[in-house]
């Protein structure tokens, strides 16, 4: 399968979702390619007990949608992972983002052809996306990291089982 877009965004976390929304507003065709099966990035992958944000929920909200800012009520001062994921899903629904997000698509390579001024991205199934611009909205923590002291691996392994492996 081969497809073309103006801006290919890798990652449907908070950054990728916002970028898609902004580009749409500017009339620029864009498409997100996301390894996971849903939006939310960090909050899609990290489902271990007790996961929550460490800044106040009200600060951990998109600022671009004033109406949503007024409507959305966080149930706790420091929201838990399920609630933040629900929020991300709500934003995706509200702004109809999913129609331009391709889930379960892990990009394995991104190559730039300077002469043609074009990126070619290839996913895990050999699917090809070409784009004039490529934005890596891949976050800070895409690979599983096990602490390097004896026994730490066993402690961490269960918690990290949902995390994506590095491309
Ligand atoms: C437990 C926890 C608590 C946190 N609390 C806070 C907080 O309180 N305040 C704060 O500011 N930040 C916090 N963070 C940091 C958090 O990661 C960021 O706030 C934010 O969610 C990052 O969003 P992002 O869109 O940049 O990246 P991410 O949410 O990491 O999204 C990146 C996306 O890119 C996708 N991706 C990566 N590589 C590929 C590939 N090759 N192909 C396709 N898709 C790919 C991933 O699947 C993922 O969905 C916390 C993180 C964790 C884990």
Give me a quick take on this structure.
The chain is built from five helices and six strands. It has helices at residues 14-25, 42-45, 66-71, 81-94, 152-157; strands at residues 2-10, 30-33, 101-102, 107-113, 118-123, 128-136.
Summary tags:
single chain; 167 residues; alpha/beta; FAD/NAD(P)-binding domain; flat
CATH superfamily: FAD/NAD(P)-binding domain
Bound molecules: flavin-adenine dinucleotide
- The low-confidence parts are none
- In whole angstroms, the N-to-C terminal distance is 20 Å
Give me the Rg, rounded: 17 Å
SSE series:
EHEHHHEEEEH
CATH architecture designation = 3-Layer(bba) Sandwich
Total strand segments: 6
The side-by-side strand order for the widest beta sheet comes to: 3-2-1-6-5-4
Helical fraction: 25-40%
Principal-axes shape call: flat
Give the count of structural domains.
1
Total helices: the number is 5
State the secondary-structure class.
Answer: alpha/beta
CATH level 1 class label: Alpha Beta
Provide structural commentary.
The protein has 167 residues and is α/β, with parallel strands linked by helices. The chain has a single domain, classed as FAD/NAD(P)-binding domain, CATH 3.50.50. The chain contains five helices and six strands. The protein has helices at residues 14-25, 42-45, 66-71, 81-94, 152-157; strands at 2-10, 30-33, 101-102, 107-113, 118-123, 128-136. Strand 4 (107-113) and strand 5 form a beta hairpin. The longest helix has 14 residues, at 81-94. The structure holds flavin-adenine dinucleotide. Flavin-adenine dinucleotide binds next to helix 1 and helix 2.
């Amino acid at each position: 399968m081969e497809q073309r877009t103006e801006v290919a965004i890798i990652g449907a976390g908070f950054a990728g979702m916002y970028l898609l929304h902004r580009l749409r507003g500017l009339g620029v065709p864009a498409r997100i390619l996301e390894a996971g099966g849903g939006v939310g990035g960090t909050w899609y992958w990290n489902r271990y007990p007790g996961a929550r944000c460490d800044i106040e929920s009200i600060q951990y909200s998109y600022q671009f949608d004033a109406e949503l800012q007024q409507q959305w009520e966080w149930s706790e001062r420091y929201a838990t992972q399920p609630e933040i994921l629900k929020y991300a899903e709500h934003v995706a629904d509200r702004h109809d983002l999913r129609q331009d997000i391709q889930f379960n698509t892990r990009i394995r390579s991104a190559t730039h052809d300077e002469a043609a001024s074009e990126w070619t991205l290839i996913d895990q199934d050999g699917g090809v996306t070409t784009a004039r611009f490529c934005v890596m909205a891949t976050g800070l923590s895409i690979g599983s990291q096990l602490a390097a002291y004896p026994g730490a691996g066993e402690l961490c392994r269960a918690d990290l089982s949902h995390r994506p492996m590095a491309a």
